[in-house]
Fold:
Amino acid sequence: MCTVCTKTTHFPENNLQKPAKTSKQHNVLPIWGNEQTMNLNPLILANIQGSSYFKVHLFKLKTYHEVVDEIYYQVKHLEPWERGSRKTAGQTGMCGGVRGVGAGGIVSTAFCLLYKLYTLRLTRKQVNGLLQHTDSPYIRALGFMYIRYTQPPADLFDWYVDYLDDEEEIDPRAGGGGPTTIGALVRQMLIKLDWFSTLFPRIPVPIQKQIEQKMGEHNRQMSVSKPAAVYRGGSGGGPGGGAGAAGYGSSRMEADRREHDDRDRRDYGDIDRYSKDRPAKRDDRDRDRDRDRDRDRERDKDRRDRDRERERERDRRDKHRDRSRERYRQRSRSRDRRYR
Structure:
């Protein structure tokens, strides 16, 4: 009887203790690859670490939420270099634009903030917070890029699978002109090695084949569950236009590869042709952009109102403190006169 009692009292305690330990370990996000460089291109990393924006301004930001706010206000594209700051026309070999070596430029705020996130050593919960953020698609995009640079290739599909058909719109190009969706962006990160003028960490060929097989299976499941779904990253933007989820097979992947290569050649092979061959704008995308701009303006107005209110409150506190100090000085002077 005593033995049975002992077993029934001890096993529940053990069961209560183990999940807490496992949960804490699960929240720790290990870093894959080179922990000193975050697997970034050496030229880009050197420009980040040498930039005054990173050394002076971002150095003052100490918390995850401060960095997220900075992303919201400052990041407007996802390229590693600011537009027009890196002249690579006519360069060949190791000085060419694809590899990101030889000719530097002004490193973008996006990559400075990406590396700043890395210095904070984000937890799994914080990374998921970036991926699901509702304020700006660029906050989400930096979360996906953080995963692409720091997580094992075998884990990438599990991180990205829930976002393969995400339809939130984003423009990753410096200067604009290349609108796409979060879903299309994530698919590019899974099947493409190059990212504008730099390279993502290499995915081993066997893992790359597994990823493409899983993407094909995902597309088949989407075509069965949502046969009328429209993939907004394709050529159509409304009902009846463009390819559905089922259309994103191996041929679509290859088309995306060619399209991305063409964009890189336009952007970094000849800067003067930057504005040519842009895809035609569609009415629904124009309406979406107008709606996003209106929403951004409202959000900025709300933030400004909150800032003004905080400033007024700070002024009131300062005036109250000054009055209190003045009253204290007057009492001190009168007390001194009384005892002379």
